[in-house]
Amino acid sequence: MPEAAKKPSPKPSPKPGPKPCPKPCPICRRPMVEAFRPFCSDRCRQVDLGRWLTEAYVVPGPAVEEPEPE
Ligand SMILES: [Zn+2]
């Protein structure tokens, strides 16, 4: 009985652990801070909020058609 057939079985064990690379701040691309996620700071959060508001003002909505008085 030959004992040469000892093969170290490869163990591909992908452990679902914490992600090594968190998403960067969408504003300045710096590492996200848990307290301000998904941003890196309160400043970037405000910037994002302002951006939304600004776009809301810039983007022209559908023209409101007023009913013509007869
Ligand atoms: Zn940022």
TrEMBL record:
Binds 1 zinc ion. Residues 10-24 have a biased composition (Pro residues). This is DNA gyrase inhibitor YacG. Belongs to the DNA gyrase inhibitor YacG family. InterPro entries: DNA_gyrase_inhibitor_YacG, Znf_NHR/GATA. Inhibits all the catalytic activities of DNA gyrase by preventing its interaction with DNA. Acts by binding directly to the C-terminal domain of GyrB, which probably disrupts DNA binding by the gyrase. The lineage of its organism: Bacteria, Pseudomonadati, Pseudomonadota, Alphaproteobacteria, Acetobacterales. Its cofactor is Zn(2+). Residues 1-24 are annotated as: Disordered. Keywords: Metal-binding, Zinc. Interacts with GyrB. GO terms for biological process: regulation of DNA-templated transcription. GO terms for molecular function: DNA topoisomerase type II (double strand cut, ATP-hydrolyzing) inhibitor activity; zinc ion binding. SUPFAM superfamilies: Glucocorticoid receptor-like (DNA-binding domain). Zn(2+) binds at residues 25, 28, 40, 44. The keyword Lyase does not apply. The gene is yacG. It comes from Humitalea rosea. The keyword Lipid metabolism does not apply.
